[in-house]
Design goal:
The chain is an alpha+beta fold and 113 residues long. It is 65% helix and 16% strand. It contains three helices and three strands.
């Protein structure tokens, strides 16, 4: 397999794993807010509030006769930030480093084939 082919496979793996991570953290966040809603009596709806920087994830619970309550989830905020911002950078640097090492190891005879 050529170096370009390996690069293409690496990009596909990176994009696929990043997308699956985003979907997974989104579903987990929704489950967390549903759990908060189930634990609090009298509340009937919630709204997720997020911020990438500084990392923040809150579930705002609302009810017809009750004051809104905000439940903070700092660990989920940090995990979400890592998936959204840190993972693509780390994966790109790793793939580029491995690609440079592989390209450097190739002999001139292998390149001309």
């Amino acid at each position: 397999m050529t170096l370009v082919g390996l690069g293409f496979v690496a990009v596909l793996i990176g994009v696929t794993s990043w997308t699956l991570g985003l979907i997974g953290i989104s579903q987990y966040a929704e489950d967390i807010c549903f759990d908060d809603l189930d634990a609090a009596s009298g509340y009937r709806s919630y709204r997720m509030e997020t911020s990438s920087w500084p990392p923040r994830f809150d579930c705002r619970l609302a009810g017809p006769e009750l004051a809104p309550v905000v439940v903070h989830h700092p660990f989920l905020a940090v995990v979400r930030f890592a998936i959204v911002a840190v993972y693509p950078v780390v994966f790109t640097v790793t793939v580029l480093t491995l690609g440079a090492m592989l390209a450097r190891r190739r002999t001139p005879e292998q390149v001309n084939r």
